[in-house]
Amino acid sequence: MSFKKKIETTFLSLIIGFFTFSQYSCNEQQKPEKKDSVADIERRVDSIMKLMTLKEKIGQTVLYTTEHDVTGPVIDKNYLNYLKSGGVGALFNATGSAFTRKLQKIAVEETRLGIPLIFGYDVIHGYKTIFPIPMGEASSWDLDLIQESARIAALEASVEGLHWTFAPMVDIARDPRWGRIAEGAGEDTYLCTRVSEARVKGFQGESLNNQETILACAKHYAAYGAAQAGRDYHTVDISKNTLHNVYLPPFEALAKAGVATMMTSFNEINGIPATGNHYLLRDILREQWNFDGFVVTDYTSINEMVHHGYAENLKHAGELAMNAGVDMDLQGGVYLEHMEASIREGKISEERLDEAVKAILKMKFKLGLFDDPYKYCQEEKEKAVILNQEHLEAARDVARKSMVLLKNDNAILPLNKEQKIALVGPLANDEYHIIGNWVAQGDRNGTAVSVVEGFKEKSIDFNYAKGCNIENELVDFSKAISIAKEADVVVMVMGESERMSGEAASRTSIKLPAIQRSFINEINKLNKPLVLVLMNGRPLDLSDEVRQVDAILETWFPGTSGGHAIADVLFGDYNPSGKLTVTFPRTIGQIPIHYNMKNTGRPADIEGANERYTSKYIDAPNSPLFPFGYGLSYTKFEYGKPELSNNELTADQPISIKTKITNIGERMGEEVVQLYVRDRFGSITRPVKELKGFQKITLEKGESKVVTFTLSVDDLKFFDDHLDFVNEAGEYDLFVAGSSDHEFTNSFSLVLK
Ligand code: NOJ
Predict the structure, then answer these.
(1) What residue stretches are annotated with the Fibronectin type III-like domain (predicted)?
(2) Which of 549, 596, 559, 556 has the alpha carbon at shortest distance from 576?
(3) Final residue belonging to a domain, choices 560, 588, 616
(4) How far is 261 from 242, CA to CA, in rounded Å?
(5) What is the DSSP secondary-structure string of 525-560?
(6) Domain tally for the chain?
(7) Does the beta carbon of 183 sit less than 6 angstroms from any atom of ligand 1?
């Protein structure tokens, strides 16, 4: 018997457990689902671990990129050699059934133990069918829809051999200069938590063993969004109050909801890089939250601890990371190169390495890879699943529900199909940028629907001219002016390029590029009704445009079916219902600005305040241009005063809040009904208001509905100065409205016995 055969036989007999193990045969038909119990998995993992050499164990903690996609600065082209010698446990940036199958075959057939690989990828807002960027999707406030878009993304990715997405990004993002604001769910902790839970449900489904589901990854742990000055990868210096009350809760919720993996962030937090942060990774994540998955670094973030000035050299950095609780090294090669020596020298214990390897192998079992390592390579299904009609329709629906109508003077929208329309602007006939940044395998050339195509589908009379490029020059300018002169209404599709948001795309200005502003100025001189359609990945400073145009529709980067979705909204085939998840400032000088700021000792709006010595700017109001939660509809909603079931909230007696909402406009519409609460004072100061609930409802013309929220003591807890998660007795105010910008209408007391 050959050595390999011998090993296989021993291996098989040890891991078989209760199961019949068909050694990695190509599985054409999906096997019936088999859910291993936790104990079964533990037993099977233990039996494999007994066979593994130290080198093989280290190999499981190593993740490398292939050359199929580039998502970071370093590509170590030796991944194939490492793989063959058992030095790689997972790969990313490898796509397509044929390619992933080929690589899996190497792992299974050419390594001593044949342990299958996990394939990861940044499937952020769709795989080939691209949905709106996450900030856009979140603006729908529609959790079922968001879950469904993640489910479709997982389905498309999983038939191409992928098991793992590096999503969702659950970083709270309050700085519009930071390009990655596009990738999250905005500035609010409660909303981000709900949206992130929906995304994880969509990716992971009911069982990871199902071929159509993939591992999710909550990232970037932690506080990546609090980068100083909005500059990507920058220092984070944050109070414990803000860290625990604002930035950590979405991670906690996902750890508890069973997210499979977490990714550490690039940044340091109060002097300690997240990737070497024992407090975050061990004390909080494992000890307090009982996180049961594995922790991966961000791209070379172990190595970067040397640049941070926290590690002396790479070996030291690896020790800091492993000892802090990082299980897998993404692209750094540090574990592969230095871990053995660190273990030999006693700098890392073998028990700690075992813990990491176990967590990784457990996921491979949960995915069913030991029963069939090729089960996700579904060549024969790819065609039927990828970009199918159902997915394109879903993308259209999510896109239109994500759009936010920011302004609509004189009800200029929806457009009348009989009007003569001039369609201009750099993004009007675009199929490249419309799908946004981080598009996995999304096609930028030929698959996405431009606004021009969307208009054509509506069979309306319109003329098109570009007018200018996104960033630098006028193009077809005279034609644009002349068609605008002839038109009843001008629709301008403007915004950012896809490269202007996302990773490593921070901006010091959040205005539209200068050439576009000049172009708008010229069009504005024609005195025509103007509609501005925006595509962008961050809140923009629209102070000038808001004065110049009659209507503004924020479409984010709406994805593959974006042009259809925009036309649906502009022509009234869909009534917009999106609401902002991030504040739009009037000027960059207001940053940081978010709806749930703290008060000061000298609030500007306090009655009887001395006008001069209050907390304000001398050259701009404190208020934003568009607040969190804001968004218009083609109809109007009237809110009644909330009715409270009781005025005292106790541990045994939650309060129910009933509010009647009536559609008083001329057509059916959807409304995001939002509940905000203020804790008047506390042992640490409290935000001026906090979102505590929301519901999206549909109302026919003239229809009323009573929306009920329930508040319990748990909803009012916060981390105090000792980091105890507490309730504090006292007075609270609330309101229910269609935006965060509203007066309080009711109050109640929290009584603790
Ligand atoms: C760096 C990014 O920060 C992270 O979000 C991503 O998942 C990795 N690169 C892998 O591409």
Answers:
(1) 671-740
(2) 556
(3) 588
(4) 24
(5) TT---EEEEEE-SS----HHHHHH-SEEEE--S--T
(6) 3
(7) no
Asked if residue 287 lies in contact with residue 325, where contact means CB atoms within 8 angstroms, the answer is no
SS (H, E, C) 610-654: CCCCCCCCCCCCCCCCECCCCCECCCCEEECCCEECCCEECCCCC
Please name which of 471, 462, 459, 449 lies closest in space to residue 491, comparing C-alpha atoms.
462
Answer yes or no: do 545 and 693 share one domain: no
From the CA of 219, give the closest atom in ligand 1: 5
Q: What is the pLDDT of residue 27?
A: 36
* 226-255 mean pLDDT: 98
Last residue of a domain, one of 588, 622, 647: 588
Query: Which range of residues forms the domain containing residue 424?
Result: 389-588
Pairwise CA distance, residues 364 & 633, whole Å: 47
Q: What is the mean pLDDT of the chain?
A: 94
Q: For residues 592-610, give the mean pLDDT.
A: 87
| pLDDT attached to residue 37 | 83
- Identify whether the C-beta of residue 165 lies closer than 8 Å to the C-beta of residue 214: yes
* Count of CB atoms situated within 10 Å of the CB of 432: 14
Half-sphere CA count of 256, side-chain side, radius 13 A = 10
Is the C-beta atom of 298 inside 6 A of ligand 1? yes
390 CA from centroid of ligand 1 (Å): 29
Annotated catalytic residue within 175, 298, 327, 430: 298
**Is 393 found in the same domain as 383?**
no
**Dist. CA 203–CA 257, nearest whole Å:** 13
Which amino acid is residue 638, in one-letter code? Answer: E
pLDDT at 753: 85
Q: What is the CATH number of the domain that holds 693?
A: 2.60.40.10
User: Residue with the nearest Cα to atom 3 of ligand 1?
Assistant: 298
- 298 carries an active-site annotation: yes
Give the span between the Cα atoms of 17 and 37, in whole angstroms. Answer: 12
Q: Does 12 have pLDDT greater than 60? A: no
H runs (alpha helix) in 367-388:
379-385
Would the pLDDT of 13 be above 80? no
- Interatomic CA distance for residues 83 and 90, integer angstroms: 9
